[in-house]
Design a protein that fits this description.
Length: about 400
């Protein structure tokens, strides 16, 4: 049984980023940059006002208003000592002016204003390039393209972008006990929830679900489904990866010529885990219990999809939270990922912690990690990841 860390490293070493593609800027959200991008323009592009007020040369108490400069086209106004231009937020600073006084700090009388206080040189002027210099790097290769990065790119007049390749995935859920949709359940049967969970998780990382199927515990049927699913870059199979007589995934993969690199991982929940390569497809055999599916997807599948999409930072975002209860991991060999709620700086386990407990998982918004054999007291720090 391989450690979680070694399994993750082995999986990630086996994949390479897909070829880059160009898309319209709006389509790049939550994708990863395939190239560095540098600023074409400084920000701000010109000296402009940070407030509604009056552009002046600091040092006088009274000024004569000689014109108005709204945001928009530069009217090429010029001020001299004792003169002021009515100005609005974002408007170009008239030549000669070295300060803007807020409208709340003046008394206006016709075409004259009186300053009610002191004006500092440079006050309320946004200088050209003070936020961003021309030529400055604004996007690194592998960066996730967020809404705010899209806004920055748009400010440069950029309309398309090179991003990593599109990842398509196939999802197969296995088990004679599974029923899809609202069909009537027979004794011993349950509705299939894993395929819904996996498809949602795949879409949540901005990949596409190209194929989904529910298979009986039948070698021929399963082999055909795997062969079909392996036409995608990623194949996710839930169930059938343990060691029982009806766990047929490994056998089906071997008959198709797959190279199985990992078989069982020291992680709780999620020990029944398989990773293989079948032609150009990476195959994940995930446990049958939904909590185990969720945890192993986050630990192994998500970073793999990110890497295929061109990401360079593959680590989950974790931070230390205060534990709200005593917590122990009785397993001496496997770290335990506890489902819980995070709020007000504190983490509390929620619901039953067995791997089948879907309701508790549905109420959780975070995973807390406790090391193998670890014991934590209320008030101790625990590493958590927001996942709800």
């Amino acid at each position: 049984m391989i450690t979680e860390e070694n399994a993750r490293a082995k999986v990630l070493e086996s994949v390479r980023a897909l070829p880059k593609r160009n898309v319209d800027l709006e389509a790049a959200l939550d994708c990863f940059a395939a190239e560095e991008v540098h600023a074409r323009l400084p920000l701000p592009l010109f000296d402009n006002s940070a407030m509604d007020g009056y552009a002046v040369i600091a040092g006088e108490k009274r000024y004569r208003v000689i014109g108005e400069q709204p945001a928009g086209k530069d009217r090429q106004l010029h001020v001299k000592g004792g003169e002021a231009v009515r100005i609005f937020t974002g408007a170009p600073i008239p030549s000669g002016a070295n300060a803007v006084v807020m409208q709340e700090d003046v008394t206006r009388d016709g075409e004259s204003i009186t300053i009610n206080g002191k004006i500092d040189i440079g006050e309320f002027i946004r200088r050209r390039g003070c936020d961003l210099s021309e030529g400055q790097k604004i996007l690194s290769k592998g960066d996730r393209i967020t809404a705010t990065k899209l806004a920055l790119l748009a400010s440069q007049g950029i309309v398309d972008l090179a991003i990593g390749g599109e990842v398509t995935a196939a999802v197969i859920s296995t088990g004679d006990e599974l029923v899809r949709g609202n069909a009537a359940l027979q004794p011993g049967q349950i509705y299939d929830s894993n395929s819904t969970l996996l498809a949602a998780l795949v879409r949540n990382v901005n990949a596409q679900v190209a194929f989904a199927e529910q298979c009986r515990d039948d070698l021929e049927t399963l082999t055909h489904a795997i062969e079909h699913g392996a036409r995608q870059q990623v194949l996710l199979i839930s169930g059938g990866v343990s060691v029982g007589e009806h766990d047929l995934v490994r056998r089906a993969l071997e008959e198709l010529g797959a190279k199985i690199d990992i078989w069982r991982v020291a992680i709780k929940p999620g020990k029944p885990f398989l990773f293989a390569r079948l032609t150009d497809c990476v195959v994940f055999g995930l446990p049958g219990n939904p909590v185990s599916v969720f945890v192993t997807f986050l630990r192994f599948v998500r970073p793999t999809i990110w890497k295929l999409m061109g990401a360079t930072d593959l680590a989950p975002s974790t931070f230390a939270a205060e534990l709200d209860v005593d917590l122990a991991n009785d397993d001496p060999k496997r770290p335990h990922y506890v489902r819980g709620k995070f709020g007000n700086g504190k983490f509390s386990p929620i619901g039953r912690q067995e791997s089948h407990a879907l309701f508790g998982l549905s109420q959780a918004n975070a995973l807390g990690r406790i090391e193998a054999g670890g014991k934590l007291r209320r008030g101790d720090k625990i590493d958590i990841e927001i996942c709800g």
